[in-house]
Design brief:
The protein has helices at residues 2-65, 81-88, 92-96, 98-125, 132-170. It is mainly alpha-helical. The longest helix is centred in the first third of the chain and has 64 residues, at 2-65.
Length: 181
């Protein structure tokens, strides 16, 4: 019996070492796969947000360059679907980082603010034009929109720079190429 145990002991030790090394290898492989998945998700989210922000910037540039005075009517639409989709799961800060999520959120809050006043002004456009109170309100909304366009355009380069920096850290090839601001 003792001989049997002594003969089996090396096999038992080798098996236990193999199981431990295999388990550790599987754990490390699983963690590496999770990091790759998170990195891929972050890259996709950041690229999509950057494209949407660039599109909004182009619209804001057109609005600004159209020479609309604060008293003029400004009707335009700024898409936020990429932000709403990316933020919908509630885990965006964990995917791209809390600091970056906060910086992007600040920029999108300006976009949402603008959209609100553009919608309010559009609703006023359907009301009777001869009401002096509504005329004053239209003028106030137009001034707020004008200021909001300028503020969003000033903030845009910093927000894009933060996204590009994060893309460079997550996927260096994703941020290569000419920078559009």
């Amino acid at each position: 019996m003792e001989d049997l145990l002594l003969d089996a002991l090396p096999d038992l030790i080798a098996t236990l070492i193999g199981v431990a090394i295999g388990g550790l290898g599987a754990l490390l492989a699983g963690r590496a796969a999770e990091r790759r998945r998170r990195r891929g998700r972050a890259t996709t989210v950041l690229r999509t947000l950057k494209q949407e922000m660039m599109s909004c910037y182009q619209i804001l540039t057109v609005v600004r360059d159209a020479g609309a005075q604060p008293q003029g009517q400004m009707n335009f639409y700024l898409s936020t679907s990429a932000w709403e989709t990316a933020n919908g799961g509630g885990d965006l800060p964990e995917i791209i980082g809390y600091r970056l999520a906060a910086a992007i959120e600040r920029h999108y809050s300006m976009i949402f603010h603008l959209r609100h006043y553009v919608m309010q002004q559009s609703a006023l456009d359907l009301s009777p034009p001869d009401n002096p109170n509504l005329r004053k309100l239209r003028s106030s909304y137009a001034a707020i929109i004008h200021q909001g366009v300028e503020a969003a355009m000033r903030n845009h380069p910093a927000a894009i720079a933060e996204i590009e920096e994060a893309l460079g850290a997550v996927a260096p090839e994703a941020s290569a190429g000419p920078q559009q601001r």
